[in-house]
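Most newcomers find our protein records easier to grasp once they have seen one. The structure tokens are whole numbers drawn from a learned vocabulary of backbone shapes. The record below serves as our worked example for the rest of this section.
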Amino acid sequence: MRPDDWHLTEDVDDFLARAGDFLRSRPGPHVMQLTWAERVRARGAEAFGAEAPVFGVLDRAGEVHATFYRLPPRGFGLSPLTPEQADSLAAHLAAVGHSLPSVSADHDTATAFAEAWQRHTGATPGLRDTRLRLYRLGTLTPPEPLPAGRGRVLGEQDLEQVMFWCGEFAKAVGEDVSMDADTWADTRFADKRYTLWETPDGTPVSIAGMNPMIGGQIQVDIVYTPAHLRGRGYAGAVAAEVSRAALAAGARDVVLFADLSNPTSNALYQRLGYRMLTDWAAYDFA
């Protein structure tokens, strides 16, 4: 494996022309690659900062073996890599002068790259405390009985309500996000479709969102219930509602991430029919 087998580009259309079929062949493990490439394609590279996004393809004899994306000053995301592929990529990026604040990928890939990056640059990797598990839906099994109420899909007329709920979710998970009507379109929350679970009197109690379908796959993101309303079945009801909507929209695969430190949500998704695909990890580089 030679470092120069990696081809770097700032042109997302070129990246997708080279690697689109490869990414769509395993959309689950490639969910972040597909999602961020589509966001850059739809919004334009300038929407993500002054420094251009960079995409990479490991191509040998016309066959794609792996990819990466980087959205400065954000971190760096990888498709699944072997240790040899991770080392060749680290060597290439170090040689051309890239500086990486972090890396995220499936656990084995992130670990292999973090170790390779340390070898080639001396940067010390630190594993983040927050670890995620990626799930894919098998057979959807809605909870029974459902809590009283109904799901309501939010539209453009509900922007204030959407921004409020996304803001509450962001605070709950520690994301430093501020949003209003002027900045909403630039947030990661703007391209989702949201559903609220409402009690019979119309009180909203839980929200779930789903990303647009990419490569035949839809990612459920976010699922949130305020702390004082948990334990009443609302999250299961709204997550099932959105999962059903994703299948009705024609998705062949439905995936979501869950925080491994929250056994309640992991157990909930498994009851709904989600099955583990892989564990996810992120390292920050000192």
